[in-house]
Write a structure and sequence with these properties.
Elements lengths: L4 H10 L6 H36 L3 H29 L1 H20 L4 H19 L2 H8 L3 H32 L9 H7 L17 H24 L4 H23 L13 H30 L5 H7 L1 H11 L2 H9 L1 H20 L7 H28 L7 H36 L4 H30 L8 H11 L1
């Protein structure tokens, strides 16, 4: 299953010269190990959020910044990270990002105040963006053939799901047995032990990196999330909300103008000529909102309404990660090759929407086995089908020279959608809770009502993505059954 022609030269130049197939799979494992550290951190924090809230005195809206500070830095710098990988070498950028992420994890663990933790999480997001921006680009250039690429992305997705499982369990166990501070120290051995990956030289800094564009988009997103979160305090029609919202929109407008006039923009608008890439990024952004909202508000619901302890919260979310991981070990790849990526994506989206609807309609005094276990399992199966298929559709039209940027763009859409969406859902949940309290409901009942309302909004957004996927994404031809045999033989 060799790589042919001009694409061979480009792919090998980006990864490493004359690299045998086995070395490519080894490089994939190393990249996955680095990404594992980032994924573990994302889920491990969700489980510890209730303990962090109590220890440092966060409000619910303020607590969102423990997640959002990371997501905004991560989402705002992914494009720049991907571009820097193209310019000075993806291996170099990957390792620099891991170093920053590991150091910031140490600072998070040592945090003793709200500002210190939020600042450390922001730096952590910078490291995560710089390192992970180049990973998917390296994967698609190392594995240009459809069968290999589907399996490689499946392995990548499995590592993400396995990391989620590790994070859920480790977060609950460490928080309950020791302290939430220690959850961040889990990242240190993984970061220090990550091996050196295949070398690449990049195309040179002379091509430019558009730092101005990166600053504009990051500042716009930070102000946007800040405005949404604080609207719960100041009101949607207040001068504070309208003023900061206008500044955020102005900065985003300046970013778009910059992309038109810059010699080497961080986000060349020509990329959006690809219908699949454009549609996949919108779908990724909206679909991520429901997933992020479920984990963030779900952990608070389990702790504040059902009175679960940290370890129990981690175990409660385990079906999501296990189901996603199980599907990612070749199952999603085989389904995609047999039925086509769009068909698999639509199936997964329907499952995600159904899971969120079931959770939104669940009772306040819920029973885990009756009201939570099946929706969470359905959510995991849906995610395990939808996200690998969406990645393949998004990267289908990417050339080797644009793969790093396309990879960064897809990750950016997920993080931006997650950050802005989480801010919106947390604010809607808080406002709904306040309304229910004014109507005479107890605090616990009002909290439950707020969480369930937010999950309903998340489900509605996923339904919108189903319509977009059916209307906007081009279907890809499924691979013949005999090709599936070749994939299995190659991966054996």
């Amino acid at each position: 299953m060799g790589i042919r022609g001009r694409d061979t030269e480009q792919a090998l130049r980006i990864t490493q010269p004359a690299q045998p197939t086995d070395s490519r799979w080894l490089s994939l494992m190393v990249l996955c190990a680095g990404f594992l550290m980032i994924v573990v951190d994302m889920t491990i924090v969700n489980v510890a959020l209730p303990s962090i809230r109590r220890d440092l005195g966060f409000s619910q809206a303020g607590l969102a910044w423990v997640v959002n500070a990371y997501l905004i830095a991560y989402g705002g710098l992914l494009l720049l990270g991907g571009r820097l990988g193209d310019l000075i070498g993806r291996k170099r950028i990957f390792l620099i990002g891991l170093a920053v992420f590991t150091a910031a994890s140490l600072l998070c663990g040592l945090s003793f105040s709200q500002p210190m933790l939020i600042a450390a999480r922001f730096v952590q997001g910078i490291g995560g963006a710089v390192s992970s921006a180049v990973i998917l680009g390296m994967v698609v250039t190392m594995f240009p053939e459809p069968g290999e690429r589907a399996r490689a992305i499946g392995i990548f997705s499995f590592v993400a799901s396995a990391g989620a499982s590790i994070g859920l369990l480790a977060g609950g166990l460490i928080t309950q047995a020791i302290s939430w501070h220690w959850i961040f120290f889990v990242n240190l051995p993984i970061g220090l032990a990550t091996a050196v990956v295949a070398a690449d030289s990049g195309i040179g800094l002379r091509e430019g990196a558009d730092v101005v564009g990166a600053f504009l988009v990051t500042a716009s997103l930070m102000l946007g999330v800040y405005t949404i979160v604080e609207s719960a305090t100041y009101g949607l029609g207040s001068l504070h909300t309208l003023g900061f919202g206008a500044i955020a929109f102005g900065l985003m407008g300046a970013f778009l103008v910059r992309q038109v006039v810059a010699r080497n923009p961080i986000l060349p608008l020509r990329l959006f000529r690809s219908r699949n890439l454009s549609g996949a990024n919108v779908i990724q952004a909206l679909m991520t909102v429901g997933m992020f909202g479920m984990f963030f508000l779900g952990s608070l619901d389990l702790e504040r309404v059902l009175h679960y302890r940290p370890l129990a919260i981690g175990l409660a979310f385990l079906p999501v990660a296990v189901a996603m991981g199980a599907l990612s070990i070749g199952v999603s790849a085989r389904l995609i090759m047999r039925f086509g990526a769009r068909t698999v994506l639509l199936t997964g989206q329907v499952m995600i929407a159904a899971a969120l609807v079931l959770l939104a309609l669940g009772p306040m005094n819920s029973d885990y086995l009756r009201d939570w276990s099946f929706p969470l399992l359905l959510l995991g199966v849906g995610g395990g089908l939808a996200f690998p298929a969406l990645a393949i559709l998004a990267m289908a039209d990417a050339t080797p020279s644009d793969s790093g940027l396309a990879s960064g763009l897809l990750n950016t859409s997920a993080q931006i959608g997650g950050a802005l969406g989480l801010a919106v859902l947390a604010t809607l949940s808080t406002n709904r809770t306040a309304e229910l309290i004014l109507k005479g409901q107890t605090t616990v009942a009002a909290l439950s009502g707020g969480y369930h309302f937010a999950w309903g909004v998340g489900a509605a957004l996923v339904v919108v993505t189903i319509v977009l996927a059916a209307a906007a994404l081009k279907p890809q031809l499924a691979t013949a059954p005999e090709s599936l045999v070749e994939i299995e033989e190659a991966s054996a």
